[in-house]
Design goal:
It comes from Botryotinia calthae. This is SGNH hydrolase-type esterase domain-containing protein. One of its GO terms (molecular function) is hydrolase activity. This protein is of the alpha/beta class. The chain has a single domain, classed as SGNH hydrolase (Rossmann fold, 3-Layer(aba) Sandwich). Strands 2-1-3-4-5 form a 5-stranded parallel beta sheet, sandwiched between helices.
Amino acid sequence: MSRISGSANPPAFLLAGDSTTAVQSADLTGGGWGDGFIATLRSGAGGINYGHNGATTVSFVNGGDWAKVLASVAKYKADYTTFVTIQFGHNDQKATANISVAEYMTNLKNMAEDVKAAGGTPILVTPLTRRNFNISGLASEDLAVQANATIAIAKSIGSLYINLNRASTDYVDAIGATNAATYNLKPTDFTHLNTAGSVLFGNIVSGLIDVAVGSSFGFNIKTYTKPNATIAKDVASGTYIFPSGFGTLPNNTLPA
């Protein structure tokens, strides 16, 4: 592991979430921002994408994914400052999930507390926007309830959080429906991301984490999270960009 001389342990990011965090699947059923975010890590930082297609705050725990995340916190915490991003909501909101908003909030709280107990730091993440647009030409903010609930529970327990829902909504509103659709995993899928979308929104996450973490852990997080300057500039100005030339994105950059 390449570590900056004299610094605290570099960060490790373990990404817990549904298909809007997960790797771009070969069968085109899921793909999110996770790998695009991991690709922004530098200087000995690393990450693992544990996103699971179709996951809710209940199934991610009951299906064994959460145990894997917590085991990785235990594994890496001696050598890394270990963060766990927690982003759910897309599937929790569905009637078939039978998960109330109150239960969703409790589940997020329990997950954050599990991370703390394991020796890591949770970062709650509001859900990535869908790229469906209303007749006014703006994104249909159909995850606002889950986004607000995520922020509320983060504040109530004093957890770090990033408002990806707001940032991603603002960006797709700025570039419009036609441009936003170029990030679709397949033409009719306005939820999941192709590789360019993973890079774009992964860079947005990286920038948000820069602000949320800052210099609070014995290092300046910007030493380790390096959003692409061109992408960051275009996002800030609301200018459309289709990232290219990034090759195969990593889903695990931590030592075995």
